[in-house]
Amino acid sequence: xxxxxxxxxFILLGxxxxxxxxxxxxxxxxxxxxxxxxxxxxxxxxxxNSQYLKSPMYFFLSYLSFVDMFFSSVTAPTLIVDFFVExxxxxxxxxxxxxxxxxxxxxxxxxxxxxxxYDRYIAICKPLHYTTIMTGCVCGSLVMASWVGGxxxxxxxxxxxxxxxxxxxxxxxxxxxxxxxxxxxxxxDTYRVGIMVIANTGMISLICFVxxxxxYIIILVSLRTRSSEGRCKALSTCASHxxxxxxxxxxxxxxxxxxxxxxxxxxxxTVFYTIITPILNPLIHTLRNEEVKNGALIILIWIxxxxxxxx
Length: 311
Prior knowledge:
- There is one protein chain.
- By secondary structure, the chain is mainly alpha-helical.
- The protein has one domain (about 10-310): Rhopdopsin 7-helix transmembrane proteins.
- About 75% of the residues lie in helices and about 5% in strands.
- It has ten helices and three strands, in the order E-H-H-E-H-H-H-E-H-H-H-H-H.
- Helix 1 (about 20-50) runs antiparallel to helix 2 and helix 5 packs antiparallel against helix 7 (about 190-220).
- The termini are far apart.
- It is found in: Cell membrane.
- Keywords: Cell membrane, G-protein coupled receptor, Membrane, Olfaction, Receptor, Sensory transduction, Transducer, Transmembrane, Transmembrane helix.
- Its main location: membrane.
- This is Olfactory receptor.
């Protein structure tokens, strides 16, 4: 007899169980989330309003910041509120919705980072053809493909999960709804579903990472023939993107390119790429890029000036 679906809500066990540390964690993650939203929003406004940041690289960067802002917003508010909620519950429908949105923005970011590597490859390896290849139409199509790819991936993940029966227990050993913790609660054998999750999320992450690594190897090899000044400028531009790729894909591959098992380190690894990485992206790109830094400074001065006038 097939198990029936009788779970209407899940109980999230959360991130921190130490009552003494919960206020500290609350303040830390609130500040981190505010900085993430404001930092990424600053980059979006800077790129949109600066006449010097109109190249495809900044076009992709603004969309990356947009995705980061919402990717963090999927999990951070829930985590923050749950520090002071004794019984951390989420409805079944809410859990599935969170799963869908989380994977939608996460996979979209994966594809966007890959598109940004392609942009850098064309800019450095084929500079004479850059403007004819990376047209506004092409850039828009690449961003749209990232959104569509993220949507398709997320639909698959959601359908794989929602067709499973959940008849109890209903405690998720995590601070949000994700595939691996939910598979542990299913009242059926989830081996095949786990393999499909690896084939879906894990292989997408691995393939994109390999493409990124190969792209940057080709770029670094091509830089040997450049002048010292050109080499330094290209390396400075690529270094920020390589740093983002490493800190994003490392935890992602660890989490999803493995069987559907959970480890004690999973929560902290997840915190890193869902909450820490979205704030590192604007910091890395801003601090290592003089054009973005100067543009952001102008926007900040304008905001402060406008605010002082209102006061």
